[in-house]
Structures are given as C-alpha cells and as structure tokens.
Design a protein that fits this description.
The complex is a heterodimer.
Chain A lengths: L3 E12 L2 E12 L3 E5 L6 H9 L4 E10 L2 E2 L5 H7 L1 E4 L6 E5 H12 L6 H7 L9 E2 L5 H15 L3 E5 L7 H14 L10 E5 L13 E6 L2 E6 L1 H18 L1 H4 L2
Parallel strand pairs in A: 3-10, 3-11, 6-9, 9-10
Antiparallel strand pairs in A: 1-2, 1-4, 4-5, 7-8, 11-12
Helix pairs in contact in A: 3-5, 4-5, 5-6
Chain B lengths: L3 H14 L32 H9 L11 E6 L2 E7 L7 E5 H7 L17 H8 L5 E5 L9 E7 L4 E11 L4 E10 L6 E11 L4 E9 L4 E11 L4 E8 L5 E3 L3 E4 L5 E10 L4 E10 L5 E10 L4 E10 L5 E10 L5 E10 L6 E10 L2 H8 L5 H12 L9 H13 L8
Parallel strand pairs in B: 1-5, 4-6, 5-7, 6-8, 7-9, 8-10, 9-11, 10-12, 10-13, 11-14, 12-15, 13-15, 14-16, 15-17, 16-18, 17-19, 18-20
Antiparallel strand pairs in B: 1-2, 3-4
The chains are: A alpha/beta, B alpha/beta.
C-alpha cells in the first residue's frame, strides 16, 4: 500500500446509547478507492459519519488518522478543512441558503480551485438548480448531483460517498459516476486523492473502479478482498455467506 | 369641515386628554426620562459627516442618492435634505410635513385621520409638539420607478425624536419608498416616536419598506395606519436586525375599497436584551379585498420578541392569511406568536393563520460544518436564510438595496 491517507484503528462508535461500531480498522492509501459493503444497519453510514466527525457519533475507542495526523477529537469543520468531505445519502434541506451561495463560499475558501461555480455545475448538470435552496424540493438524482457538485468545489483529499447511486436512475448514475471520477482525480497521473464508497448494489463500481472492499456486519469488519470478488460472493450467498467464507476466517 | 387651525385645536384638545394614557402593549415609558429638545454636543448638521452617512446607510439610506428618486433626511428635528431627482420631478412631492400643512388646503383630510391622535401618550405627545416629519405625495397617475428614500436619524443624547409623516399615493400612482430609521453613535439613549399615516388612492400602489437600525439604549414607538381605497395596493415591509431597548408597534391597515390589497411582511432579529413587540392588524372592509401578513422572527441572546397579527373581517368575500414563523436561538430568549382572527358577522369571509416556532436544526448546522463552515458561520447562514428578504418579493431596485444591507448587518462572520 502507498502512504496511507486514512487509517482507522480499532474504532468503536456509540450513537445515542447504542454501540454501532466495534473495533473497526481499515486503511486507505493515497490514490486508492475502497468500497464498504454490508447489510442494512451494519454500521456503514456510522463509519462515514464518524470519520467526518458528525455530531452524535461518539467515538468510545480507537483512533482516526488522516495523513499521519490524529483527527479523532477534531470538529466536523476542522476535518473538512483538513481535506475530508462526505457526500451524504440523505442531505438535510437548508432553507434560505442557495446552492450557488454555498458553492461560491466553498470556492472562495478554496482559492485557486479547478473551476467556476458555473463550470462545475455544468459537469453535474445542475446549472438550472443553482438558485434553488439547498436540498429543498430536489429529486433523488438532483440531490446526489448536488452532493457531487459540492465535493467538486471542495476538492477533498479523502472523499466519503454514502450510497451515491441510491434513488438515482441510470442517466443520473453515469453523471454521478463521472463526477466521482473527477472528484477522485481518476485519469490524472499521480493523484493522491482517496475515497471510501458505501454501496448496496455495486452499480457505481461500473464507473468508479475500486481497489479494495470491506464487508461490515453488526459493527465489525468481517471480510476484505477484491471488490468484484466480494460482490460475486455476496450475490451468490448473501451476507450470511460472508461469515463462513475463507476470507472472513482469515480476518 | 372646520378650517385647519380649528381642526388642529381639536386635535390638541384630544391629545391633551390622552397625555398620560398608557399604550395597551409594550413597556410603559416615562417620557420625563427624555429631553424634548436636543441638548449637549451638537448633533451632526452636515451631509458630508461620514458617521452620519454610515448611520443612514445602516438603515438602507444611501445619501449619494444613486438610483433614488428623491430623498428626505431629518436628524433629530432638523431637516438636512429634501430633494426630488430630476427624473421624478412633476411626479412626486417631498417636503417637511409642517410646510405641507401650511401650503395644502386638503392637509386636514390626512392629518390624524388614519391614526387616532388620542391613541396613547405617544400619539398625544407627538400631537402636542410642533409638526415634524415628512410629507410625500405621489401625484395622480404617476409611476415613480426609482425608489424614494427617507431617513430619520436620532442623534441627540437622551432626547425624544417625534415625527409625524404623511404618505399619499394618489389615484392610479405607483411608488416605492424605503425608510431608514437609525441612531447616530452620539446617542446612547433616546426615544423615537414615529406617527405615519398612509393613504393609498384608488388603483394606486405603494410599497413601503422600513428598516430600523437602533442600538441597545433606544426606545421606539411607531404609530402607523394605512387606508387603502378601491383596487389600491399597500405593501409594507419591515426589517429589524439590530438591538433596541424596547420597540412596540402595531400598525393598522384598513382595506376600505373594493378589491383592495395589502401585504405586511416583517423580518425581525432580536439580539442582546431587546424587548420587541410588533405586529399588524388588517381590517377588511371592501368587497373582495385580500390581505396577507407574513412575519419571520429569530430571538437570540436575552431578547424577547412578541409577534402579533390580527385579521378583522367586516365584509363577505374577503380573504386573508396570517403567517408567523419564529426561530428561537438562545436558552435565554423568548419568542411569542399571537395570531388572531376576527370575523364580525360575515359568514363568507375566509381567514386563516399559521404560526410555528422551531429551534435551529442541528442537522443543518452539522451539514454546513461538514462543508468547512465554523459553527458560527453555519448558524449565521441558517438564520440569514430564515430571514431571507428575497421572500418579500421586493421590487428589484429595493431588493438589491436591502440585500446589501442584510449582507453586512446580521451575520458578521458569515461566508455566504
């Protein structure tokens, strides 16, 4: 593995009073994309939220390290400024704040980014939505494209994608996929940008090839391997089959 | 009708009897705490006073007069500027109200006719002083495209600024007025009494946007009323984003004419220890008249805000809606919404209201923080979004001006 961008070690996370993650460890190298699989309720979103430092996701053990720097105690905004960004599965509506105003502020903070509000919005076919309030009244596809648009503005070093293809039709999946490739610097030589993708269907992997996969069940990583092989196994045997496979026994 | 001096004497007699009448709402102020006339250091008297210009700008009044049709500026009781731009000459009159009373034989048709002179001690006090304030008349059939602006600046420490304004939109006319009421930094304590009477003629349309920019030592008691004739439209916008010691107002709009319309919109941010009691009452009298009242308020710090609204239907076939939305942003603040509907023997009147108070959604704050905003920046963006002036549907010329003002007012630290 190249120099790790993200190192999660023995991470335990509690939401409310319930322990959701139990000593989870994973490491993502520079330029790598990993995929996180698992049944509903296994803790996939919790892991992304915990890495992003979202309130309500309390780390009770372990550590999160970004580029060699411990960030476990950092606030959400500090982590964003440190280079992490999360594309939410269900972003909340923020009334009164337009997508354009937010994008302008993100680009302004970035100073010297890779595009203008209009050009980046064009990439995800969102120009007509720029004056809309953030996440208000958008379709499923528009919501996902809006998240991608924001990540394009942010240019994060580590991108976290929470089910980027859910609720998205085929046309939109290709736009989302292309945006993810751009966000992850795919096609550029020596890109150090890394990503962690939560996916149920694996459809997005047609557009964004992943280097490694992890299967999360009941808050613990139970299997690792090549994403396509993991998907094939899950398709054949379901997640329960994961528990008994030889890969899992080796973890 | 008696000649003007006789009428004014009658008004004075009624005011005298109401001299100590407490207002039904808001803290009862002791007028003896304030001086009737400016004293001490001379307040600014020149238009090129930079502090004065900044104070006016804080209330949306641009003394460069760019893109304005006319200007009236009064500091305490002195008129510093009254001007109608060339583009609007022959369309509008702007003058001190005392001058209009002397010159206009019809003045008594407007003087203390919409607002009762004996409403309370504040109207009474104003009536018992020499008339001060502005008179604006939009001439019949004239469409004044550039906004007119007025500014009432309180500058003398510890004094009362009492004004009585008359705004007349004559038949078939259209105009927008932006009014800034502000405090000069030289005044730490003071009282602003502002009586305003609006007369919207048949088929006329007036958009009146009032921006208050006070400070924590100033008490404010506006007393306003509007009368709207057949097919007339009156839009009243009110914005308060800065602290005030106490402010109480409850303007009344009477839709007297058939198919007349009104809209009252208020955006209020309570900060510091501000005591704010605002609202509006709309009386629906004309056949098929319509009204809409919308208010948005955020209570921060230790502020207390009461937002009232009353719709009174006195005719069938009228329709009106009242909406109060509030956000409470502090454990020490208080926010009350008091909507009231009153149908007086009119079974086909349609009145409705919605009122809601909610906290700032932490989920939204966290979302914006995940985009790199600090908590303060995220809160600021959300509160500014909640108080979005774009919702007011202002004419474009006013919209730009108000947005510029909002951009520098409520949310220092905001990145949006």
């Amino acid at each position: 593995m190249t120099d790790p961008i993200l190192e999660v070690s023995n991470l335990s996370v509690v939401v409310g009073r319930k322990k959701i993650l139990n000593e989870v460890s994973l490491s993502i190298g520079a330029g790598e994309v990993h995929v996180l699989l698992g049944p509903n309720g296994s803790g996939k979103t919790t892991l992304l939220m915990a890495v992003m430092g979202m309130p309500g996701y309390r780390v009770t053990g372990g550590s999160i390290v970004l580029r060699g720097r411990e960030i476990t105690g950092m606030g959400t905004d500090e982590r964003s400024r440190a280079g992490i960004a999360l594309a939410f599965q269900k972003p909340p509506p923020v009334r009164g704040v337009t997508l354009k105003a937010l994008a302008e502020s993100l680009l302004e903070a970035k100073a010297g980014g890779n595009g203008t509000v209009r050009s980046l919005a064009e990439k995800v076919r969102l120009r007509s939505c720029l004056d809309r309030e953030l996440n208000v009244g958008l379709s499923g596809g528009e919501l996902k494209r809006s998240e991608m648009f924001q990540l394009l503005c942010l240019e994060p070093e580590l991108s976290l994608f929470d089910e980027p293809e859910s609720g998205v039709d085929l046309d939109n999946i290709s736009v989302v996929g292309e945006a993810m490739r751009s966000i992850l610097g795919m096609g550029k030589e020596r890109s150090r940008k890394a990503g962690l993708i939560v996916t149920h269907t694996g459809h997005i992997l047609r557009y964004v090839p992943a280097d490694a996969g992890h299967v999360l069940m009941e808050g613990s990583i139970v299997c690792r391997g090549h994403p396509q092989i993991l998907f094939e196994d899950i398709r054949k045997h379901g997640f329960e089959g994961c528990r008994s496979c030889r890969h899992c026994r080796s973890i | 009708m008696p000649p003007l001096p006789v009428y004014l004497k009658e008004c004075a007699g009624r005011a005298e009897k109401a001299r100590n009448r407490a207002a039904p709402l808001g803290p009862n102020l002791d007028l003896g705490r304030y001086r009737a006339e400016p004293h001490g250091e001379s307040p600014p008297r020149k238009l090129d006073d930079q502090v004065l210009r900044e104070a006016a700008l804080s209330a949306g009044v641009d003394l460069s007069e760019e893109n304005r049709g006319g200007t009236y500026l009064q500091v305490d009781h002195s008129v510093l500027c009254r001007n109608v731009r060339e583009a609007c000459e022959g369309q509008v009159e702007i003058s001190p109200v005392a001058e209009a009373l002397e010159r206009d034989p019809r003045a008594e048709e407007y003087w203390w006719k919409a607002v009762a002179v004996d409403s309370d001690k504040y109207t009474a006090y104003t009536a018992l002083q020499a008339p001060k304030g502005y008179f604006i008349r939009i001439l019949p059939g004239c469409r004044v495209d550039l906004p007119l602006q007025t500014c009432l600046l309180l500058a003398a420490e510890g004094s009362i600024q009492d004004v009585h304004n008359i705004i007349i939109a004559e038949e078939g006319s259209t105009a927008q007025v932006i009014t800034g009421c502000a405090v000069h930094p030289s005044a730490k304590k003071g009282l602003h009494l502002g009586v305003s009477e609006f007369y919207i003629g048949r088929g006329a349309s007036l958009t009146f946007t009032m921006i208050h920019s006070w400070s924590g030592g100033i008490d404010v008691r506006p007393r306003s009323a509007a009368v709207v004739e057949e097919e007339g439209t009156f839009v009243s916008n009110y914005i308060l984003m800065r602290p005030v010691r106490s402010l109480q107002m409850y303007p009344v709009t009477t839709l007297r004419g058939a198919r007349s319309r009104s809209r009252f919109q208020a955006i209020v941010m309570g900060t510091g220890d501000s005591r704010i009691d605002i609202g509006s009452r709309t009386v629906l009298e004309g056949k098929a008249c319509r009204s809409e009242t919308l208010s948005r308020a955020i209570a921060c710090g230790r502020s207390s805000i009461t937002v009232r609204g009353q719709l009174t239907a006195r005719t069938d076939d009228c329709r009106a809606h009242l909406e109060c939305r509030g956000m409470i942003a502090s454990g020490e603040a208080r926010l009350r919404a008091v909507p009231e509907l009153d149908a007086e023997g009119v079974p086909r009147a349609e009145l409705s209201h919605e009122a809601a108070i909610s906290p700032i959604a932490e989920e939204e704050v966290a979302y914006l923080m995940s985009r790199g905003m600090t908590r303060e920046e995220a809160l600021s963006a959300i509160t500014r979004g909640f108080l979005n002036v774009a919702l007011m549907g202002l004419p474009p010329a006013l919209q730009g001006c108000v947005e510029e003002l909002m951009a520098v007012t409520p949310a220092e630290g905001s990145r949006l």
